[in-house]
Amino acid sequence: MTNNSALARKVLMGATITILVIGILAVGTASSFYSLKETGSDTTYLKGHVIRILVGIVACMALSTRSDRFFKNTALPVYILSFLAIIATFVLKDTQFAPRINGSVRWLDFGVRILPSDFMRFGFVLFAGVLISKGTVDIRKFKGVFIIALLALLPSLLTMLQPDLSGTAFTLFVMLVVLFVAGAKFSHLAILIGGMLLIGSSTVLIRGDYQLDRIKASLQENTMEQEDNYQTLQARITLGSGGFSGRGLGQSRQKRGFLPEAHTDFILAVIGEESGFLGTSAVLILFFLLFTSSLMIARGANTTFDAVVGGGATAILLTGVMIHTLVNSGVIPVTGMPLPLISWGGTSMVVNLICIGTVLGISRRSNT
Predict the structure, then answer these.
(1) Which parts of 226-266 fold into alpha helices (H)?
(2) In terms of DSSP H, where are the helices of 31-67?
(3) Taking the domains of the chain in order of start, what are their residue ranges?
(4) Are 9 and 290 in contact (CB under 8 A)?
(5) How far apart are CA 304 and CA 184, in angstroms?
(6) In whole angstroms, what is the distance from residue 222 CA to residue 201 CA?
(7) What is the reported pTM?
């Protein structure tokens, strides 16, 4: 193992462990009010969060030791099963198996609640890596770019109809990163991006309701009477009230019923309130270290498959942080997006740790 590769692996593991510890502290404090109100115990959510982390760590460690053949063999099944799971949300819509949560039907609940689109992104990355590395598609031709894009565009259309605007944007960004890493021409990517923007904006305007209301609300940021803007305003208040060094761990006031989804979609705001600018900056620096080390490993991959999968897995981690941070700071409309490795949420936690395990496996294979 080269010095750079060994350093990248250590930084990735160190950053991941540190972020997970911060997440345990953050979920513990951010969820205490809701947990006590809903379950009678202020640690119920925290206990569930720790269990999810343990499950994710087991998956991470297991995948870090697997060969590339294992990932190639499981790529198509993971993609198909997750795609079918997204379709199932429409078939079972508004039942106990696919409940409507915050106006959207995006979850499946069979005793354990999962978000199919999270698994679908990882399945797309694996399947795209297989097709590109085997030469099944020529990524230097627009036809090849379109075929790979179609694998992401079809499930993205379904997630938009759920509606899940953040999930749709998430998947499309990961798709673009995969195409870029694979070597697609800039002209082809520009055509693809232009087409997506045209179709996406037209769809939002035609549908009009959910997504358009959120966009309008974000443009009326100072209007307290705008119901759809309430979460953004509360997130900004929460972040701003932390000042430079914060109120102190466990001292958040906004988590006590003022800030919705404090332990999931707005946990960065709670971190900002309790640890201030210093704490928020430290968290973002840790994520920066995680991304750069992951990218270094992907760039040093020995095979096209590992390079594409490594880049795609890194994109999954990066995009979640980007969307969550932008929403919490009020830059983009409010969407349901947990902060990777920190927020309470089983599917997100497990999939993100699977991505890290996959990258660690690439590091191991690149130096054997």
Answers:
(1) 230-240
(2) 32-39, 44-63
(3) 3-365
(4) no
(5) 13
(6) 25
(7) 0.91
